[in-house]
Amino acid sequence: MGRESTQKPNYEILAFITTNKERALGGKPLMLLAKDAEDAKSLTVDIAKAMKADVVQMKSGDYLVLRV
Asked: What gap in Å lies between CA 33 and CA 40, rounded to an integer?
């Protein structure tokens, strides 16, 4: 493997939204447990608009709200 980078990533995870309580473990970003997929999508859009951030939907259906 190469040398480890000491540079900070050029993004910040602001929120993690999921419908699976097994993946809502805690940590630095805001973690929200939505009741269903529609609720998760709505929460994600509202948070991203309020924080002027970008959204990534993961293959699992979970959402990340990122500031780039």
From this structure: 8
Q: Tell me the C-alpha distance between 17 and 10, whole Å.
A: 21
Beta-strand pair 54-57/12-18: unpaired
| β pairing state of 63-67 and 12-18 | antiparallel
Count CA atoms closer than 13 A to 63's CA, side-chain side: 25
Question: Whole-number mean pLDDT of the chain?
Answer: 89
| Structural domain boundaries in the chain | 2-63
> Tens digits of per-residue pLDDT, 40-63?
999 999 999 999 999 999 999 999
Q: φ, ψ for residue 13 (rounded to 5)?
A: -80, 115
